[in-house]
Amino acid sequence: MKRRQFLTSSTAALVTTGAVSRWPARAFAQETAPMARLAMPALLDTRSTGRLSLQAQSGSRSFLGGAATPTAGFNQDYLGPTIIVKNGYLAAEVTNALKSPVSTHWHGFLVPGEHDGGPHLPIAPGKSWQPEMHVAQDPATVWYHSHIHERTAEQVYFGLAGVIHITDGDDDARGLPSAYGVDDLTLVLQDRRFDDAGRMIYDPSMMDVMHGFAGNYLLVNGQAGATAVVPQGIVRLRLLNGSNARIYTLFFGDTRPMHLVATDGGFLPAPIALDRLSLAPGERAEVLVDMSDGGAAVMMSDPAQPYGVLPFEVDPALPVRITRLPDKLDGVLEDLAGSEVQTRLVSLDMGMGGMMTGGGAFAINGRPYDMERIDFAVAQGSVERWRIRSTMVAHPFHIHGVRFRVLSENGAAPRPENTGWKDTLLVPGEAEIIARFDQPARQETPYMFHCHILEHEDAGMMGQFTVT
Ligand code: C2O
Ligand code: CU
Ligand code: CU
């Protein structure tokens, strides 16, 4: 592969190219010191200043207690701070202290294309980027990550990603937990591949590109084997699937329900109780979990072949703020159906044929991503229906600059967890979505739409559109 190593060199020998074993069956994250307490990412609260400063930098970290391994992060070794923003003016400054270009895409921000941080907005080494934005959207958990074409997978993998909370300060009135790291936990789920010396490896084989690169360890907020310690009440979990390719189907080992309160783009009108929650790369979900029984609980994934994601432990000494689930929330789900002026077909193509001949195996509507080609021109303010079709595997489909509603999944009504505002949707088969494209994106800085399996995206399963 023409892929070049972003931070490491010569680690390839340790990864067997025959690592076709797609999801290693080995249990995750159980080999480090027991009872390490899960830490939250540092906080970067912009609410009083309206300013935010990030530096993309290299670092190193010992994830498993063994050798330290090269990493990257924003303002720290690995990942970036959790940024708190409120609606209004937000002046960001991102500096690149790395040796390759990076960008900072605000995944979930409804801002114009020139501030979106996609592949057309690279920050050269030693340079900085200063978008002045106006945040005007509903409270939501969104995120940020590097987005350089053909290098997104590697850059995100080594740590160039973080979470953003858009907040309006009204969570007390909603009856929602909001004490960061106490009853309001931010959880970044990522699988990563480590060699026997504990070094984090990224060297995808052709099979890894086909399936998406999978790890043999699970990290939560960059930590392996940690336990979340929570108060004996209602706890809010803001989940981000920050993995390159792994799809989680989350559930609690003791079958306690998760009450979904928010999806990618904001709150639901009322909580939805779920036994299982599927979370594909790029998706976020906010759930409430009742820990008032004081019992230990383990969040797991994949009911068919279960593995542990995160153990929870109740500390009765922690302050309990919320003791009952809210009946209602104030999420407003606009019904856009019927107002569309345009229907588009988006086929997420993946074919062995192209692969063998070295052509475009990964494409959208038959065409691999081309930075010079605008695929769609959308009229600003108009509503469009997009019919998304996956080939070969289920692809998580993401659109920049909008939030959408799901009209149907495989011809049926959307699953309960997909009834809210979304910007990323796992499409096993076919789905229809609808959105109003309010924000502008010019030809020089168009919005992307793509598969959020980062290896697929880098390989060409991406397109771009203007909104004018
Ligand atoms: Cu997470 Cu193109 O984005
Ligand atoms: Cu995005
Ligand atoms: Cu894909």
Question: Which value, in Å, is the CA radius of gyration?
Answer: 21 Å
What is the global morphology?
Answer: globular
Q: CATH superfamily membership of the largest domain, which one?
A: Cupredoxins -  blue copper proteins
At the first level of CATH, what is the class of the largest domain?
Mainly Beta
Please work out how many helical segments DSSP would assign. Answer: 5
Instruction: Please name the CATH architecture of the largest domain.
Output: Sandwich
Ends apart, CA distance between termini: 38 Å
Q: State the helical fraction.
A: under 10%
Spans of at least 5 consecutive residues with low confidence = 8-27
Largest sheet: 7 strands, mixed
- Bound small molecules, deduplicated: CU-O-CU linkage, copper (II) ion
Regarding quaternary structure, what we see is: single chain
Structural class given helices, strands, pairing?
mainly beta
Q: How many DSSP-defined strands?
A: 33
Give the percentage of residues in beta strands.
Answer: 35-45%
Taking all residues together, what is the mean pLDDT? 92
How many separate domains make up the residues? 3
Describe this structure in words.
- The protein is mainly beta and 468 residues long.
- The protein has 3 domains: 9-170, Sandwich (Immunoglobulin-like), CATH 2.60.40.420; 184-314, Cupredoxins -  blue copper proteins (Immunoglobulin-like, Sandwich), CATH 2.60.40.420; 342-467, Immunoglobulin-like.
- It has 5 helices and 33 strands.
- The protein has helices at residues 152-157, 171-174, 206-211, 352-356, 454-459, and strands at residues 36-37, 43-45, 51-61, 69-74, 82-85, 88-96, 105-107, 128-129, 132-135, 140-145, 161-166, 184-194, 200-201, 217-220, 226-230, 234-241, 248-252, 258-263, 266-274, 277-279, 284-290, 297-301, 307-314, 340-350, 362-364, 376-378, 383-390, 395-399, 404-409, 424-427, 430-436, 447-451, 462-467.
- Strands 12, 13, 14, 16, 18, 19 and 21 form a 7-stranded mixed beta sheet that branches.
- Strand 18 (258-263) and strand 19 form a beta hairpin.
- The chain is globular.
- It binds CU-O-CU linkage and copper (II) ion (2 copies).
- Residues 348, 395, 451, 453, 456, 461 line the site of one copper (II) ion (CU).
